[in-house]
Amino acid sequence: MTDSNLGRAAAKKPFRRLLLTGAAGNLGKQVRGALADWADIVRVSDIAPLGEVASHEEAAIVDLADAGAVHALLEGVDAVVHLGGISVEAPFEDLLEANIRGLYNLYSSAHKQGVKRIVYASSNHAVGFHPVTSVVDIDAPLRPDGLYGVTKCFGEALSRYYFDRFGLETVCLRIGSSFEQPKSARMLVTYLSYRDLIELVRCSLFTNRVGHAIVYGVSNNRVSWVDNTKAAFLGFRPQDSSEPFEHLFAASAPDTRFDDPTQQYQGGPFVLAGPMEPQRNAAGEGQ
Ligand code: NAI
Ligand code: 15L
Fold first, then answer.
1. pLDDT in tens, 201-221
2. Mutate to test the pocket of ligand 2, among 83, 95, 99, 123 (most ligand atoms within 8 A of CB)
3. How far is the CA of 177 from the centre of ligand 2 (A)?
4. What's the CA gap between 69 and 61, in Å, rounded?
5. Residue 122: beta bridge partners?
6. Global pTM?
7. CATH: 3.40.50.720, 3.40.50.1360, 3.40.50.970, 3.40.50.300. Which one for 11-273?
8. Residue 225: per-residue pLDDT
9. pLDDT tens, 236-253?
10. Pick from 134, 156, 149, 22: nearest CA to 95
11. Which of 31, 71, 169, 266 suits 58 as a labelling partner, its CA being 20 to 30 A distant?
12. Where are the domains of the chain?
């Protein structure tokens, strides 16, 4: 064994096995690499292809709506980073399978398999119908801005129940807009850099005794609609800001917000996106 191998073998990682759902998605691809530093084995899962599988990884193609498959997926897992599911407004039947049934399957199996903690990707759309003139803290009333947001409220309530009933801990991340860079003037306010996202996941996995917690996932942007004071115990201190991107949208931000719901409410375009009708095939039958 070389010196560097000896060093690696000696460094014990905090987790034996972490599960990442939604590993093929936008955020899953970002978080996947970071988990390697924190667990001996990273089980990566999605309904979509997972790409190349590293030696420390176990790959599982699983539909969250499949209860039996999800039960097997949770076997031997210490903690979960749950990013899987539908991530935008969609017809109710689709949301029902991925985000409602899928989440129930995850929590039910996690409890039965003895999982200790879940980091759950909630969304700003759980509270998207609060006006942009207000600042919401983690106790602000839920005001989902579409059926997608309603499923995130379900996830926050389900995880609360599993903590109160069984002590299964969850940190609900009300993520703003996590992309390579903001895509609109609104996202200058809701932007969460990938680096800050990974730090938020790290804080959520490693803080002792989180119980059931909610935290907003936004970077240190100049304007903010959220207040994380009550989640300070997580120790999340964002390093990045949307400031370097402000010049991209300055010209396209006329102050029309009070005539237009997509400008008036924190959820932006999501507030008018739902409810969506089921997809129809050529014969006009619901799918
Ligand atoms: P994404 O849509 O890129 O990734 C979601 C992944 O979940 C996809 O790879 C998809 O194949 C998988 N998935 C969908 N249905 C599934 C099912 N039935 N079974 C198994 N896997 C399924 O979304 P993104 O951006 O990576 O977001 C990750 C999570 O974070 C989502 O839960 C989303 O709602 C949440 N979120 C993301 C925000 C963002 O700005 N990216 C903002 C707020 C919340
Ligand atoms: C979300 O919840 C979505 O998953 C993401 O695609 C973004 O649109 C984000 O919110 C947002 O509010 O910008």
1. 999 999 999 999 999 999 999
2. 123
3. 5
4. 9
5. 174
6. 0.95
7. 3.40.50.720
8. 98
9. 999 999 999 999 997 665
10. 149
11. 169
12. 11-273
